[in-house]
Structure formats: structure tokens, C-alpha cells
Amino acid sequence: MAILVILSCLAAPVAYAEDSHAPAGPVTDDPGAEIFLPRMLVTAIQDGVIKRHYALLIKLRIARKEDVDTVRNSMDRLQNAFVYDLNEVAQRGDHFDQERAKKRMLASCAKVLGKGDIIEDIVFERVLERRISG
């Protein structure tokens, strides 16, 4: 009898532990996904002279996981639009304006993807600048 009591006491925590992993209810917060773009190289040309080169590492934050395939299927068109956006930003001023670039790129995302809420944010992970002396 004592053995049965001991075995039941040992088994009870295991059963309780299994129940504690069951979801409490429906998950309402579905975090999206992130896609890193291939490194992008941009040249700043002002008055017909190359002034700077920028190497950019950019991450797209997608609002919902179910939109990842939509973004990947449109990646060629997105990258083409981003090249125009980034080159336009690089031509202005003496530094790379990340906020201006982000606004232009988000507008391009909305145009290419057909909806403005698919891309939640654009993050510049790294912006390296190389000035050309001359």
C-alpha cells in the first residue's frame, strides 16, 4: 500500500507539468517576420563627380507571418524600387539620411505590394560610408 501511495505522489507532478504547457487560450499577438536584403551598394554622385560610396545592410520587418511569401514573391520589384530610392537619397547632402530613405522605401513597398500595412518597418542595420578624396 505504501508503494502505491509513493508511486501516485511521484506521478502527480508529472501529470501536472504536462497540463501546465497547454495553451491558455487563443494567441492574439502574432509577431511578424524579418527579411534581410542583400547588401546594397550606393554611389553618391554630385555635380558629375563621385563623392561617396555607401554599403547598406537593410532589414524589412513584415507585420504578419502570412505575408512573407507575398514579400518574397515581389522581392525583385521591391529591390528595383529600392535602388531608385536609395540613389536619390544618396545624391542629397553630405550624409545618408536614413529617415528620408525609410519614408521613400515604405512608399515603394506600399506601391509594389498593393497595401501599405504589409511592411511594418525598415531597419538600417548598418550604413558604411566611404568618402572619395579628390
Mean pLDDT: 82
Strand content: 25-35%
Radius of gyration: 25 Å
CATH topology: Tetrahydropterin Synthase, Chain A
Helix content: 40-55%
Task: Tell me the distance between the termini.
Answer: 93 Å
Q: Please give the CATH architecture.
A: 2-Layer Sandwich
Shape: elongated
Multimeric state:
single chain
**Elements, N to C (H/E):** HEEEHHHE
CATH class wording: Alpha Beta
How does the major sheet shape up? Answer: 4 strands, antiparallel
Structural class: alpha+beta
Give me the number of helical elements.
4
CATH superfamily: Band 7 domain
Unreliable runs, pLDDT <50, ≥5 residues? 1-28
Domain count: the total is 1
Number of strands: 4
Give the helix/strand layout.
Layout (H helix, E strand, L loop, with lengths): L1 H19 L12 E4 L3 E7 L2 E14 L5 H6 L1 H16 L7 H16 L5 E13 L3
Helix pairs in contact: 3-4
Features:
single chain, 134 residues, alpha+beta, Tetrahydropterin Synthase, Chain A, four-stranded antiparallel beta sheet, 4 helices, 4 strands, 28% strand, disordered N terminus
